[in-house]
Amino acid sequence: MDGMVAMLPTPLQNWSTHLDFEGQRFAERIYKITLTISGVVGFVVGVWTQQLSYALYIVMAGALITALVILPPWPFLRQNPVEVSHNVLEDFFEKFGGYRIVKWHTPAKPEPMVSSQPAAENKVADKKAADKKKADKKKKEAKKSK
Amino acid sequence: MHNLLSRANSLLAFTLWVMAAVTAACFLSTVFLDYTVSNHLEVNDIKIRNVRDYATDDKQADLATLAFNLKVDFSRLFNWNVKQLFVYLVAEYKSAENAVNQVVIWDRIVERSERVVMDEIGVKTKYYFLDDGAHLLKHDNVTFVLRYNVIPNAGYLRLVQSTNQLVVPFPTTYTTTRRS
């Protein structure tokens, strides 16, 4: 792809054909719908005229029309631009590495799990603390007796 | 889908899927149709000669020459899934040497066009009607069968036999003149 881009005249090389994510989703939906419709219309025309070539010409024409709609980076496909945070390190990566790490959608932080049996757990903890106290006491007494 | 080439790739792949689906639908819409036709066949002027069969072994074999009139209307066979027909005429008979003998004596390609009705008189055979032995003489029932391949745009090669056959008794003497 880069080799092909290098063959274009210089002002075209910097032209970006990127779409934002919503635009990509919309473009995919457009081509699926239009090509399916052109397939159905092509089949009907093929049965009507009894020519398979007409059916396939219609599908190819539908593909050409769809290409005009979704291939160029139209403004209606760029209406939800990706939010880019400017961070010195990320700017450095973009400049010298050629790519940028983009935060598009931060997943919500999962809530901390609340224990379903708090009383039991505390009992165990209390028991452990009590046991520990007893052990410490015994140790102290042993020390004292010595 | 992030750049032009990626979008073009997705679009092309889906276009090819749709074209394959349309072709499959074309096949499905024509696969259960009836492709039989009847024919009107007359065979005349049969001559049998006893010749040396150099191609196989050096025995004497019967060689038959004949001309036929054939009238068939193929126009109802052609639909959007038929490219052409390959029509051929077979002579089938039983002999002492083989239980079944089938000799193709003529064939023709009929393309999808305006000229699909055949009405010809005095058609000469294209291929030699050479017997495997000398059993054609006095043969009571040599059957002439018309068969054809329906060559589709999408699908399998279909072989159909025409509805009528012609049973012909063969001459009882050899022809000794050179003219066919």
Give an account of the 3D structure.
The complex is a heterodimer of chains A (146) and B (180). By secondary structure, chain A is mainly alpha-helical. Chain A is 66% helix and 0% strand. Chain A is elongated. Chain B is an alpha+beta fold. Chain B folds into two domains: 1-30; 35-168, Sandwich (Immunoglobulin-like), CATH 2.60.40. Chain B is built from one helix and eight strands. Chain B has one helix at 4-30; strands at 39-52, 60-73, 82-93, 101-111, 117-124, 129-130, 142-152, 158-168. In chain B, the strands form two sheets. In chain B, strands 1, 2, 5 and 6 form a four-stranded antiparallel β-sheet that branches. Chain B has a four-stranded antiparallel β-sheet with strand order 4-3-7-8, with no helix packed on it. In chain B, a hairpin with a 7-residue loop joins strand 3 (82-93) and strand 4 (101-111). Chain A binds chain B through residues 1, 4, 17-19, 24, 27-28, 31-32, 35-36, 38-39, 42-43, 46-47, 49-52, 55-56, 59-60, 63, 66-67, 70-73, and chain B through 1-5, 7-8, 10-12, 14-15, 18-19, 21-23, 25-26, 29, 79-81, 153-154.
Based on the model shown, name its key terms:
heterodimer, A: 6 helices, 0% strand, B: 180 residues, alpha+beta, Immunoglobulin-like, 4-stranded antiparallel sheet, 1 helix, 8 strands, 15% helix, elongated, Signal peptidase complex subunit 3 (chain B), SPC3 (chain B)
Shape of chain B: elongated
Alpha-carbon Rg of chain B, integer? 23 Å
Number of helices of chain B: 1
> From N to C, what is the helix and strand string of chain B?
HEEEEEEEE
Q: Tell me about the biggest sheet of chain B?
A: 4 strands, antiparallel
Gyration radius of chain A, rounded:
34 Å
Helix proportion range of chain B: 10-25%
CATH class category label of the largest domain in chain B: Mainly Beta
How far apart are the first and last residues' alpha carbons of chain B, in Å? 74 Å
* Shape by Cα distribution of chain A: elongated
The oligomeric state is heterodimer
Main location (chain A): endoplasmic reticulum
Family (chain A): Belongs to the SPCS1 family.
Keywords (chain A): Endoplasmic reticulum, Membrane, Transmembrane, Transmembrane helix
Protein name (chain A): Signal peptidase complex subunit 1
